[in-house]
C-alpha cells in the first residue's frame, strides 16, 4: 500500500469511527467570541477556555466592549489561560481593528484574519471552518501529534504541516480531519503515550507498537 492509498484507508476508518464529528469544542454564540476563545486556547485546554469565556462573554457582551476594555482588567479576566498579558493586549487590539477596518465584521480570508493582532493561521482557520464553512486545515496539538504518528508529516512546524496536509488530504476532508483527530486524540491516540492496543488504526499506523 503506497502513501496515497494509506491516506484513503485512514480517512475511511475515521469516517466510520467518527461519522458525525463536526463540533467545535469552544463555546461561543457570536463570531467574534469564537475568534477570542481560539486566541485564548493557545497553550491552554478547551475546557479551561470555556470556563473563562462563560464569565468573559457575559462581562464583555459586544465587540465594542472588548475594544474599550482596560488592559489591566482584561489581563485579570483571562489570567488562568496563561500568557495572559499578550492575550489581553491582542484581544483588545484585534477587537479595535475589527471595528476600525472591517466595520465590526470578521473577514473570511486568511490574510486579513492573520493581520489581526495575535491571530495565527490556526486561529484563522478555526474561524474559517466554523463561521464561514470554508475548507481549511486546522493544525492543533492533536492534528500535529497524530499526523506525525501516522507518517503523514515529518515536520513539527504547524504551518509546514498545514500545507503538507492540504496537498495530502482531499479538500472534502480538510475540516472533518481536524474534528475527527480531536476525538481520536482524546479517546485513544493520546499524549504522551497512545493507547495502541485499543486502537482501530493499528494496521495503518507506522508508529504502532504492541505493548
Element layout with pairings:
Elements: H1 3-17, H2 31-40, H3 46-59, H4 63-67, H5 71-77, H6 84-102, H7 110-114, H8 121-130, H9 141-149, H10 158-168, H11 174-187
Helix pairs in contact: 2-3, 2-6, 2-8, 5-6
Please give a structural write-up.
The longest helix has 19 residues, at 84-102. 36% of the residues are buried. It is elongated, with a radius of gyration of 18 Å. The chain folds into 2 domains: 3-22 and 137-204, Endonuclease Iii, domain 2 (Orthogonal Bundle), CATH 1.10.1670; 31-130, Endonuclease III, domain 1 (Orthogonal Bundle). It has 11 helices and no strands. With 211 residues, the chain is mostly helical. The two termini are 25 Å apart.
CATH topology of the largest domain: Endonuclease III, domain 1
Inertia-based shape: elongated
Helices and strands: which structural class?
Answer: mainly alpha
Task: Give the proportion of residues in helices.
Answer: 55-70%
List the total number of helices.
11
Largest sheet, if any? none
Tell me how many strands there are.
0
Radius of gyration: 18 Å
CATH 4th-level superfamily of the largest domain: Hypothetical protein, domain 2
Oligomer: single chain
What is the H/E order?
Answer: HHHHHHHHHHH
Give the domain tally. Answer: 2
Give a brief outline of the structure:
With 211 residues, the chain is mainly alpha-helical. It contains eleven helices and no strands. The protein has two domains: 88 residues, Orthogonal Bundle (Endonuclease Iii, domain 2), CATH 1.10.1670; 100 residues, Endonuclease III, domain 1 (Orthogonal Bundle), CATH 1.10.340.
Amino acid at each position: 500500500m503506497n502513501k496515497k492509498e494509506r491516506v484513503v484507508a485512514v480517512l475511511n476508518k475515521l469516517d466510520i469511527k467518527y461519522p458525525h464529528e463536526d463540533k467545535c469544542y469552544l463555546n461561543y454564540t457570536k463570531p467574534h467570541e469564537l475568534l477570542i476563545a481560539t486566541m485564548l486556547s493557545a497553550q491552554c485546554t478547551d475546557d479551561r477556555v470555556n470556563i473563562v469565556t462563560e464569565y468573559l462573554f457575559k462581562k464583555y457582551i459586544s465587540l465594542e466592549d472588548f475594544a474599550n476594555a482596560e488592559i489591566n482588567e482584561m489581563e485579570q479576566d483571562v489570567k488562568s489561560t496563561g500568557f495572559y498579558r499578550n492575550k489581553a493586549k491582542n484581544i483588545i487590539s484585534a477587537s479595535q481593528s475589527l471595528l476600525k477596518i472591517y466595520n465590526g465584521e470578521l473577514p473570511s480570508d486568511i490574510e486579513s484574519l492573520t493581520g489581526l493582532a495575535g491571530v495565527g493561521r490556526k486561529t484563522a482557520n478555526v474561524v474559517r471552518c466554523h463561521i464561514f464553512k470554508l475548507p481549511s486545515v486546522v493544525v492543533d496539538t492533536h492534528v500535529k501529534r497524530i499526523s506525525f504518528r501516522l507518517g503523514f508529516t515529518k515536520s513539527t512546524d504547524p504551518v509546514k504541516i498545514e500545507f503538507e496536509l492540504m496537498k495530502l488530504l482531499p479538500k472534502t476532508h480538510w475540516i472533518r480531519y481536524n474534528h475527527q483527530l480531536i476525538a481520536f486524540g482524546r479517546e485513544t491516540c493520546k499524549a504522551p503515550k497512545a493507547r495502541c492496543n485499543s486502537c482501530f488504526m493499528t494496521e495503518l499506523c507506522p508508529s504502532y507498537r504492541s505493548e
